[in-house]
Amino acid sequence: MDDLLYGTRDKRGNWAPNEQAKPAPIWQRPFSLRKVLAWVPEYLWPWNAFHLATAIIWVTLLIPSWESLATLSITNYLWLYGLNAAGLFVFLGSFELIYYVKRKQGNRFKYNGKFPSENPSDVFWFKSQNIDNFLRSFFITVPLWTVVEIVMLWAYANSWAVWLPWTTHWVWLTVVILLAPAVHEIYFFCLHRLIHTPFLYKHIHSVHHNSINPSPWSSLSMHPGEGFPYMAEAWLHLLIPSNPICAYFTLHAAGFGAINGHLGFEKLELTEDTTLDSHAYVHYLHHKYFEVNYGGDGVVPLDMLFGTWHDGSKEADEKMKARFRKKKEKQNSRKPTATPAE
Ligand SMILES: [Zn+2]
Ligand SMILES: [Zn+2]
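Above: inputs. Below: predicted complex with zinc ion.
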């Protein structure tokens, strides 16, 4: 497929889409009902439908019995860790294998013309982004993900959280599922904005930002101080009347769903003329420019509200640069001026 029909490539080989990133049609003006209706299937399919499917599979087929989950046990923890690690390995690994190892579509639709393996750097463990990101994901974030998960199951198993059955409360539980991606965006924006404050950025979030050219393994490559609160979003379900499937939907959308921002490609070519939209551009721009797009891709446009939205256009670039200049001037004016020598 010719990616130059959809975007442009600069002389360094970096590709950018012609179309600017836009928030969800419910926030676009003038309001168009046609656009909103056309967007609904895209909101659900295929990514959120996949997270819901894995949530159902985990709860109905894979987790240990509820009796055994009522006490915290190391055997259950290891089983749950194994499931998460295997699931993540297969899911992220498939994208890594097809698009980064075999490079099935070369660099067509790839924002950054280079592949991480071509850029060894001292900021990474073993100088390799791939090894560093892989080890951090599987030996830091996935163990913390599993802590969040086993505590959540323990709370449900002991009836410390309100567990509504689907048979009687399916309307409310459907609303919870439909709102969960929007809640995720608000939660992620707040946490992400917080860890961009200078102290937390330096000591915690900079680990994730080492990957300026993110790839699938970058998705959960985080400092534990980020990985734990990031995954703990699922605990919000313990505070409202909900259900383990809804809680797992949030958990898996955070865990498996982190890949969306880190695929590195705008579109994945499935066949000669079918593609899958990655929804990666907005977060790719965050990895490129750091102080823009703290949220997701605009289901709830908090970045627009706070003036940090970058849609990939030249105008957004200028706006961002003006904001950086203003910030620098403010910082400079705070610096004490040297006393002239007498
Ligand atoms: Zn990221
Ligand atoms: Zn960040």
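The chain has a mean pLDDT of 93.
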